[in-house]
Amino acid sequence: MKLKVLFISVVFFGLLACNNDDDTGSKICDNSTLISPEAYANETTAAFNINSMEIQDSCLKISISSSGCGGNSWELKLIDSGDVLESMPPQRNLRLSLKNNEICLAIVTKEVTFDISNLKVDGGQVQLNIVNSDAKILYKY
After folding, report:
1. Strand, coil or helix: what is 135?
2. What is the 3 state secondary structure string of the chain?
3. I need a surface site. Which of 2, 80, 99, 140 has the fewest CB within 10 A?
């Protein structure tokens, strides 16, 4: 009888531990954001267009389009210059890098997320400028 109760308890608590109904809305981002003045200055990129950007928690979701076959081999990086521009609100300059070796004439759209929690500064908000696309978004935290 004790073994049966123990088994039911383990199963019950195991189900509770595996419950994914998280009301916090937290999401794990696909990629991290690199802070590197060297990479920011030297990283090359294929041509792309930013269709939209939005921030969910500490994830920056970017929708981009570029030529390609499907976008499965694309390598995307978000690189911060390491500088914080003193303005209201403060600003950070970032470069989005796309490595695209696909040789197809189709236009492919892909969404990717980056963890931007390491870009926080004092004041509760920072404007993020994607300098190679003129896109901007305000990150409030």
Report:
1. strand
2. CHHHHHHHHHHHHHHHHCCCCCCCCCCCCCEEEEECHHHHHHCCCCCCEEEEEEEECCEEEEEEEEEECCCCCCEEEEEEEEEEECCCCCEEEEEEEEECCCCCCEEEEEEEEEECHHHCCCCCEEEEEECCCCEEEEEEC
3. 2
The secondary structure of residue 17, as a DSSP letter, is: H
What residues contact 130, with CB distance under 8 A and at least 6 apart? 50, 53, 94, 95, 96, 136
The C-alpha atoms of residue 29 and residue 84 are separated, in whole angstroms, by: 23
Q: Does residue 26 have a pLDDT over 60?
A: no
What is the rounded CA–CA span in Å between residue 84 and residue 82?
Answer: 7
| Rounded Cα gap, residues 6 and 119, in angstroms | 47
Whether residue 2 is predicted with pLDDT greater than 50 in this model: the reply is no
Question: Based on the number of CB atoms within 10 Å of its own CB, is 66 exposed (0-12), middle (13-18) or buried (19 or more)?
Answer: buried
User: pTM here?
Assistant: 0.78
